[in-house]
Write a structure and sequence with these properties.
The structure is a single chain. The protein is built from eight helices and 17 strands. It has about 400 residues and is of the alpha+beta class. It has a five-stranded mixed beta sheet with strand order 3-2-1-4-8. The protein has a five-stranded mixed beta sheet with strand order 11-10-9-12-13. A four-stranded antiparallel beta sheet has the order 14-15-17-16, covered by helices on one side. A hairpin with a 2-residue loop joins β10 and β11.
């Protein structure tokens, strides 16, 4: 059996276990499809996943020309101001690179590392180890000359100029956002000939007037949006740390490699690692000296006790002064709590208060073991967690370092 089961998992899975699925043959032709809980999914030789909606975001980043091995670190710096969470907590997949005179323009798909890890682990637990995970924004229809607008349920997918954007909500609410993007494209002399509308089966957009919905741009009807149709050219998100989790034929491929080749590769890796460690050690003192010089320049007349922490505090102050989000603002603290709780974060807070860079949450139902685990997870993210008992157990979060 060489059939392939393709799943569309939204941000509520597995809390809401029902998911859309389609069973495809070797020619990518659908044999059956439906929406059901995992126990009703059909058997298949391979299982693949499409992350639906805004779980995966499309970004563009400008990078300096340099070695490919530094790309991950450079992407983290380039995208830091556009990510709600720390770059280290995000899994990045470069799907396109364009070399320019001033550097490299990279198209990047960003998904939460913990979300992807939890999703793959849950699928493995039910015997559906995925061999590939794709982003719906990349598999949505796209066109070179026109912009494409795909709609299913309450998700709108906009593809334009080799980029993509996910808009949650009905089409009527998404059109003003599309119109704003079109206005920016006109100002840059990059306006499309038309916007092509792709509707999933059962979705009705008849109330919209194609002639007036997007003033100054034609809105045309395109082929139906079939979410499972365009995975052939999409990039697999299971790479780097997730590569060994990919299922299918690659699970035991290492058994077919000659033992001599494996030993030679291991020896080469060991020598390369040793050389890298020695090189990094030689650079450490220079980096520390450079950090000290930067600290003296950025924060004069201040003793350098913990330069990294002191610079982080100054960065937060500057961000706040310029109206930008700092790592101890309400949204950042809430995001860190949700990341630490994982799937248990849903409906776990009954009340919250935020003042003086501290977030106080009412979290009923946490026993001593759950508190200890949550406290360790928050501490690993640089947060101080204080639990208090009473009529309504509460958790106080701050960026202060515990004494």
């Amino acid at each position: 059996m060489s059939n392939r089961l393709l799943l569309l998992l939204d941000e509520n899975w597995p809390q809401s276990p029902a998911a859309s699925w389609v069973l495809l043959d070797e020619g990518n032709r659908p044999l059956s499809e439906g929406q059901s809980e995992p126990r009703h999914w059909p058997a298949a030789a391979r299982c693949e996943v499409i992350l639906g909606g805004a779980q995966c975001i499309w970004h563009e980043a400008r990078l300096p020309k340099g070695a490919r091995r530094d790309e991950a670190r450079l992407l983290g710096y380039a995208l830091e101001d556009r990510l709600l969470r720390e770059p280290d907590s995000q899994h990045l997949t470069v799907i396109a690179r364009e070399t320019r005179n001033d550097g490299v323009l990279a198209a990047v798909l960003v998904v939460g590392r913990d979300r992807l890890r939890a999703l793959v682990a849950q699928l493995e637990a039910i015997g559906r180890q995925p061999s590939a995970v794709y982003a719906e924004i990349e598999t949505a229809p796209a066109s070179n000359a026109n912009w494409s607008l795909s709609l299913r349920d309450e998700v709108v997918l906009l593809r334009h100029e080799a980029a993509g954007e996910v808009i949650d909500g009905p089409l009527s609410q998404a059109l003003p956002i599309v119109e704003h993007a079109l206005a920016a494209a006109r100002a840059a002399n990059r306006a499309p000939e038309a916007v092509v509308l792709h509707l999933a089966p059962g979705v009705n957009a008849s109330p919209l007037d194609h002639d007036t919905a997007l003033p100054g741009t034609a809105l045309r009807s395109g082929a139906p949006y079939l979410w499972w149709q365009n995975t052939a050219g999409a990039h697999n998100l299971l790479h780097d740390e997730f590569a060994s989790r990919a299922g299918g034929a690659g699970a035991f491929a290492w058994l077919r490699k000659p033992a001599l080749l494996a030993a030679a590769a291991a020896s080469t890796l060991l020598l390369a690692t040793l050389g890298e460690v020695l090189w990094q050690k030689s650079r450490l003192s220079g980096i520390e000296e450079r950090m000290h010089r930067i600290f003296v320049t950025a924060v004069p007349n201040t003793p350098a006790i913990a330069p990294a922490a002191q610079l982080a505090r100054q960065l937060n102050l500057k961000r706040s002064e310029n109206g930008r989000l700092s790592d101890d603002d309400l949204l950042a603290l809430l995001a860190a709590y949700g990341e630490a709780r994982g799937v248990e974060a849903r409906n776990s807070v009954t009340d919250l208060r935020y003042a003086n860079h501290r977030l106080e949450l009412a979290v009923p139902g946490l026993d001593a073991q759950q508190r200890a685990v949550l406290g360790e997870r928050l501490a690993s993210r640089g947060l101080r967690a204080v639990f208090s008992d009473g009529q309504s157990p509460r958790l106080t979060l701050s960026r202060e370092v515990a004494q």
